[in-house]
Structure formats: structure tokens, C-alpha cells
């Protein structure tokens, strides 16, 4: 039997319980016949003031991520989408590959992760070799992101971590701050700007920035949902989120 609403695909989405941005952004990108079913990685909203605090956040995520996978798969989802990005970059390209294998083995279906999606998005634009990156992380997280992109053959020219003071506070970063960060990161020495951290509400800002800068500005939520659609043979063009969903 085919799901009456998700007759094309039922996406199970895994996101931290503290994340309030990824669900509304994914839902705005959803074409007809595709449904998003969220499962929460239960974590406390801890204070983050240091690298050690950020490492503790990652430990909290790792402790419950598979419970979230098990929960959403009771809906018999066709595919998983990772609505959390830090862990997908951890330990570089090989760490990303290992995480993907673990989750797919647990779920029995394929998954789109932010790390893979950003790499695929940059490849789709073509000609991107030097990037600047915006994160909400502490320096320890920034280093992991830079390592992943370096492993994939990109040169990270600049990286700016906003050092958000808690998981929930990431979603409180205003669009003006995101705009200013993109402007500060941009320059003639970079081919594209990439934003990671799924609780930063960046999809709308990235589309606007891309238009004005005349170069790719990749928001991780846009890239991840685009990758999930394309990996499932869904080629719908979705307007309002930049060239990635409109052209590729």
C-alpha cells in the first residue's frame, strides 16, 4: 500500500530536540507527494562556553541518535535525512562515511547527511575549489568541518564560528548577523560560501546572498534536502531557495 500523502517518498528526519529551524525550513522545500516525519535526538539544552562543552554536546547527541533512528523507522520511512550536521563532519571524510554506514545499517534505508550534501552541492555548481565557511560552533567544531572539506579536496580560506552559547540559542541568531557574516567571509579569493549547523535559519539568507554576490552560497538545510530529493529521483524545482533547488 502507498501512503496517501507521501505517495512519492516518506522522509524520516533525524534532528536534535533543541533544533527549531530545520523542520520549518525542510517543510517549506517539500514538494507534493513527499512527507517529512521528524524524530528527535533527545539532548539537554546545555550551556556551551568552551571546546569541552561542545565535546559534551556531541557526546549527548551520540548517546541517543540511534534511538531517534529506531523511533522514526516505525513509520516505515523510505529514506532518512539528517537534520543535524556537526556529527556528519566529525573525523573528516572517513568519519562521515563510517557514520553513514552505521545509520544505514541500523535503519535499513539510505540517508542524506549534511556533509555529503554540501560536497555534492559544491560539485553541482562546478569550478569550486576555495571556500569560506560559517558555523555556529566552537573552534573544536570548526576544525572538524575544515578537516572534512580539506579531505574532499577543497581549500578552506576562511571559517567563522559564531560560538553560540547553547543548542537552542543557535536558532536565535538573527538574519542580519548571518548577512554580516557572509559579507565578512566573502572575497575574491573564495569561489563559494558554505554554512553549516542546521539550527541556523540560513536558507532564505543564502538565496538572497547568492543573488547579490554572484557566487554559490550553500545553506546546509537547503543542500541536505536537495540531496535527499535528487537521491530519490525527485527532480522538482523549488523556488525561493537559490540556484541549487531551482537549477540542479
Protein architecture, described:
The chain has 248 residues and is of the alpha/beta class. The protein folds into two domains: 9-115 and 222-247, Rossmann fold; 124-219, Rossmann fold, CATH 3.40.50. It contains ten helices and eight strands. Strands 2-1-3-4 form a four-stranded parallel β-sheet, sandwiched between helices. The longest helix is centred in the N-terminal third of the chain and has 23 residues, at 51-73. The chain starts with 8 loop residues before the first strand and ends with a helix. The model has no long low-confidence stretch (mean pLDDT 97).
In terms of topology, how is this protein built?
Layout: E1 9-16, H1 22-29, E2 34-41, H2 51-73, E3 79-82, H3 86-89, H4 92-107, E4 111-112, H5 114-125, E5 130-135, H6 139-151, E6 155-161, H7 175-185, E7 192-195, H8 203-213, E8 217-219, H9 220-231, H10 243-247
Parallel strand pairs: 1-2, 1-3, 3-4, 5-6, 5-7, 7-8
For the biggest β-sheet, the strand order reads 2-1-3-4
Q: Write the CATH fold name of the largest domain.
A: Rossmann fold
What CATH architecture of the largest domain do you see? 3-Layer(aba) Sandwich
The gross shape turns out to be: globular
**Strand segment count:** 8
Low-confidence stretches: none
Name of the CATH first level of the largest domain: Alpha Beta
Helical content band: 40-55%
